Amino acid sequence: MRSLAPGRPAGFANKRREEFGSGPARRLREQGIVPGVVYGMGKEALPIAVRADQLEEALRTEQGLNVLLDLQIAGVEVEEGAAAIVKEIQRHPIRRNALSVDFQWISLKETGIFSVPVQVEGTAPGVVADGGVVDQIIHEVEVRCLPTNIPDHLVADITGLRIGDTVHAEALQAPEGVEILIDPAETVVSIAAPIKEEDLEVRVSEEMLAGLEEIPVELEEEELELAEGEEPAEAEEESK
């Protein structure tokens, strides 16, 4: 697997998975390998295994999960003009290592729908001078574009904003050829008034009380192992 972005490392051959279930999955992870599946473009879902270090390296880019991957699998012919993206990745709740990963084949010549993070940029007088707070309501939006045109992020510019001012989706800055699929009137970011100390104390107390009621019982070791051994999410036969 290698990223299609310039300067990324050379690819490596991933393997088909021949064994299934929690036991084989656990043994793979102990060897630094992540069980997964690849599907899409009308192809039958194919169980595979990928090296954990290569997977993490491929995802360590500005594109995040939207990075285009040259997914090489021994004995599998990849169509010309096709690539793969990470559709879903399951991580350990504490250690955060990858437990399983779903890949999806996509055509580089056809538009698709992708989730892109929203990044706040600029300096707001309402924050610097008035002590306000940047309240980002929407952190990710869906866009329609060619896979090769997926932006790393969309910019919400808060330059010049005062307390009470907002940035709506219509103001998001998107590159040419990228269609933002969100109501233009949706509020993405607002500059909120500073929280008074007494209000903060009340809010913290309420959150602490609510948190005490929601504390889950400690997981038994065998339950955690079962969670780690779960197979990847159910594959879809058609590309989303």
Number of strands: 14
Largest sheet: 5 strands, mixed
Uncertain residue ranges:
4-13, 217-230, 232-240
Tell me the CATH topology of the largest domain: Ribosomal Protein L25, Chain P
Q: Count of DSSP helices?
A: 5
Q: Over the alpha carbons, how many angstroms does the gyration radius reach? A: 22 Å
Shape from CA axes? globular
Quickly name the level 1 CATH class of the largest domain. Answer: Mainly Beta
Query: Between the first and last Cα atoms, what is the distance in angstroms?
Result: 22 Å
Detailed description of the structure:
The protein has helices at residues 22-30, 52-59, 125-128, 197-214, 221-228, and strands at 2-3, 15-16, 33-40, 43-51, 69-70, 82-91, 98-107, 112-121, 133-136, 140-145, 154-157, 166-168, 179-180, 187-192. The strands form four sheets. It has a five-stranded mixed beta sheet. The protein folds into two domains: 2-109, Ribosomal Protein L25, Chain P (Beta Barrel); 113-195, Ribosomal protein L25, C-terminal domain (RNA Polymerase Alpha Subunit, Chain A, domain 2, Beta Complex). It is 20% helix and 32% strand. By secondary structure, the chain is of the alpha+beta class. The model is unreliable at 4-13, 217-230 and 232-240 (pLDDT under 50). The longest helix is centred in the last third of the chain and has 18 residues, at 197-214.
